[in-house]
Amino acid sequence: MEKVALFLIIGQSNSTPIVGYMEEMEALLAGSWPALSARPAQPEPGTVYAGPSVTELTLGNDVAELAARGLTGGYMPAFGKAWYTMTGEKAVFLQCALGATGMHEWTPNPHAYSCPCTHNGGGRLLSSAIESFKTSYAALSRKYEIVRCGYLWNQGEHDECFGKMPMAEINTAGKYYAAYRQMHELLMRTLPLQFGGMIVVRSHWSGETAQDSMALTIARAAQYALCQTIPELHMISRMPETCAKDMMSPAGIHYSQKTFNDMGAEAAWNLGKALSGALPEPEGVSLFGRSGALLARFGANGQLKEGTRVLTPGGGTDWVLARAEPIGADCRVTMEIRDGKLILQCAARKNTQPQADRYTDGFGRIDWEKLRSDGVDSLEILCR
Known about the structure:
alpha/beta
């Protein structure tokens, strides 16, 4: 039997196949876009398939055919092409993502959350995705050897926008984290999934530069914490953090097709390494501020390679992100404030909640008022 890898794609519009090429083409024909950035990656015929539900592998859902006819886009074609090249497994994608949907709409009980949005998912996003997977899996498993199953996630612009509004229940990184874990745990419990893959969200409407895309949001802070505390969830692309304006599509919120092509290939290769156990050794830790500016970069032995060793209030140091380098490094970065020091440490990944303390919330926020009230007006950064 031929081998198949089955991927459930969930999230909001940058996870759908109607962005990138199709959006650029529409703007090009309308005379509002100068040129296509790229066509979708072109897999070999008979190697990559996609649809809302896939019960047979046919010409109608063959991504090679869809890409040749300009009927698909986004990161999925490039991911599928790279996956087949790397593994020899046919890649089948269940396209269940939907634009303009919030984290609460992907929970088992979306109606339990208040949000001033339009509730584009209609309350059935997760249950519909689960049903699509069950139907597809049952049909395909009769003809193919399904060798691995997992889900791919890219979402969070919605929660940055609506999380700032009154009545939005998901308005902190901690609440996003808790809602995501509800979704993740139901998926893993209900379906025969072995892994999740995270394409981290960029900062919404982030401006001109790549640094703008690094600006911290509740979703980005939560997504890093999720990948560090759920062993089977892997950060597979950080490309959205590198996107300047020229890497985006006409609308400005979706990526260009060229960016999607690079993102999909990177995500596939990083996921393949993670699932094979070929994870890179940690090479150090980078610390970023609220605005996305690099504050400090440390090498594997804790030496300062770039930036500052002392944090002071102001300049975006009230909210920081500590991430292990390179992407996929098999560790989590813990952050603790003690005795006037901000202590960063690489530790083993394990299934635990982020831990708050007197001065931090567990998601990178630093309470400088409490520090000053305790006589601390600066923090020495230590990396161990």
